[in-house]
Structure formats: C-alpha cells, structure tokens
Amino acid sequence: MEEREVLTRLGFKEDENLGEVKQLRNYSIEYIEGNNNNYFKLTDNKKPAKIIEDFSSHNQIILPVCHYEYGRVIITGWRGCLWKGMGEYIHKNVRHDESWINKRKKEKESKSKLLDTLMCEALSKNYEENLSATYCIDAGHVFGRFTRLTSYIGDILGSNQNVNNINIYPQVKEANEISNTERKSQLDFENEARDNKPCYYEAEAICKEWTDIVPIGTRIRIIDIKNSKELHHVFIPNCKYPKSDEGKNSDSGSKDTVDNENSTSEPENTVDDYRTFFKGGDLNSLKWK
User: Fold this and answer.
1) What is the pLDDT of residues 81-109, one digit of tens each?
2) Are strands 72-82 and 62-69 parallel, antiparallel or unpaired?
C-alpha cells in the first residue's frame, strides 16, 4: 500500500504528514514499502552507545518514555535493556486503582459496540472472540509482554494508576501480532528484539493529537548492546492494510484490489471517518468488513 493511503487510514488529510506529529518531530521519516515491509523508518542524531549509557546511568530495570504537554509529564511508552535468561518479574504487594477501561464501561448505558466494552473483553480472563473478531481489534501492549517486565510497570506506577492505563491501547490485529506477507507487525519487531538479546528496547504509543483516544501507531527502537548498533527504529501504523490480488505483494494493494471480506473498504471510509475513530474511539465510525 502506498504511503498516502496509509496516512489516509491514520486520519491524515492530503496536506498533513507524520512529521507534524509532536512525538515524531525530531525524526526523519521514510516509508518502507513492499517486500513484506510497509512501515516507517525513523532516523535521528542520537548515538546508540549514548542511549545505552544514559539508560544505564539510572540503574533501573525499565524507565518511562515521557513527553511534556499541558503543563504535565505524560508517559507515552517504556524502555529497557533486555538480557538472555531474564526471568519474569513478579508483582510486589502494591494496590492499583481501577483502569480507565473498567471505569468508562460502567459509565456507559449502551455497551454492545463500545470500544470500552471491546477492551474489557480482550483483557478479560473469560475472553470471547465475538467483538474482537468483528472489529479486528486487540488490547495491544506498547511495551510487549515478551520483555517479561510488564508487571514491573504496575509497581512503578503504584496505586495511582493501573498498568492498563499506560501500557495497553486498542490496536488493529494486523498491526499488533498478525505475521503475513503484506506488512510487518509489531510482533515481527518484538521477535527481532527477542532474538537479538542483549538489546536495548524502546516502545512508545504515538498519538496524532494528545486528546485522542486511540494512538495512530507504535514507535520501536532496538539497539544491539554488544556492538552499540541500532538494529531498528520504526513506526508501525495502527491500521488495516488491503490485501493484494495474490496476497503476496502489498505494492499492488489499491482501491480496486481491496479484499472486502477481510479488509477495510477504502471507498466506504473517508479520512474523516478514520479521524473520528482515532479521536473518539468510535468503533462504528468505520466499516470494518
């Protein structure tokens, strides 16, 4: 799929681009298309060795990625050094307030097709596939569970926040964990980090506007600690891709070749429809199948 079509599916109009997003302003952005790719490559002037040195100086297992907005610090992601043989972190006895997901669900009168209801189902121990399958949405982790450190986030936040407030967001299944021939998902890059330990791993949820309910994607940076070499620094768009005629070459994906059975039909969804979804989390603003 071409870059302009990806941006449309992220709610960007013709005169808008990713470089205008505050969290991405410090990066050069290049769209990598085709050959099982279809993601955005990010570059900046930060030296990998310096990034690792700065992180190590704090003597912490993981640290938040923060931005300053509205007169307060906002946690947008997490970073850490991952080592081979790293064991699962066990929660300490810390109380956590109820997450925004459960709170918002209780406040709503109609619960059948709300984003909050969907997220509650996806996070529930008695998870049922019906809503998630209909809307192709996961409760996606920003800092992945593969790190074995997500429990540590809850203890950093303490009783003021639940880990689900900070590290989980509504993510299109294809962007989160579906490996196919059309594009690279977050799972593909998480596997790269897992296979290249010891590594520095950084993941951040990116929002077009700070008040949006749904992030437009995830920024991931992976650095080989032994060689101080950056392996990947990417932005993975939180959108569904059309399937090409053969299901093999995403370059051929277009309005004429969209698989209406499994993909968002471009003629039926406008850039304003997409923007409504990201801004307010309205699942019904898009025709998902």
Assistant:
1) 999 877 766 666 666 566 555 665 565 54
2) antiparallel
Paired strand residues for 62: 80
Structure tokens at 68: 């300053």
Give the number of other CB atoms < 10 A from CB of residue 4: 12
Close Cβ partners of 29 (under 8 Å, ≥ 6 residues apart): 17, 18, 19, 40, 41, 42, 235
Residue 262 has pLDDT above 70, yes or no: no
Q: Which helix (H) or strand (E) holds 203?
A: strand 199-206
Structure tokens at 240: 């569904």
pLDDT at residue 236 greater than cutoff 50: yes
Are 182 and 253 contacting, i.e. CB atoms less than 8 angstroms apart?
Answer: yes
CB 213 within 8 A of CB 276: no
Average pLDDT in the 252-261 region?
Answer: 34
| Amino acid letter for position 259 | D
Instruction: Give the residue carrying structure tokens 């593969």.
Output: 146
C-alpha span between 59 and 53 (Å, rounded): 10
**Residues linked to residue 203 through DSSP beta bridges, in sequence order:** 78, 220
pLDDT digits (tens, 9 = 90+) for 111-153: 444 565 666 665 554 444 555 666 788 888 999 989 988 878 8
More confident: 166 or 21: 21
Q: Is the peptide bond before 64 cis (omega within 30 degrees of 0)?
A: no
Instruction: Give the predicted TM-score (pTM) of the model.
Output: 0.82
**Type of residue numbered 7:** L
